[in-house]
Amino acid sequence: MNRQSNSKKPKSRVVKIDSEQSWDFFITQANNQGCPVMVHFTAAWCVPSVAMSPLFEELALSYQDVLFLSLDVDDVKGAASKMGITAMPTFLLMKQGTEINKLVGANPNEIKKMIDGFVHQFRSFKIPVETQLE
């Protein structure tokens, strides 16, 4: 049997944070660009957290104007501590370095509602581009 895979898996839009330096870099870049950030605080040993990763990847593909970060709390303890993360999974929505919303637990519907509500609000505050030809 000849198996061909014509469908390529899309490149991940989720940035894996592996150090305090990468955390600081991506947060600073997002702040400078006015880009909202959605962070998945996870742990390899936390089954519900690992189970949420595919959903997080899917959301990252759907919301192109949001920076999606994934951070293992055991690898980058300082950033997790600085953000007050005490349970996994925790999903944190930030704008300009400020927490906008936080959800603790593996609740796909609530995560979707949280990001969708914020992005809708964020997009509605953007200045519309003039489309008049005259």
From TrEMBL:
Coiled coil: none
Domain Thioredoxin: 3-120
Protein name: Thioredoxin domain-containing protein
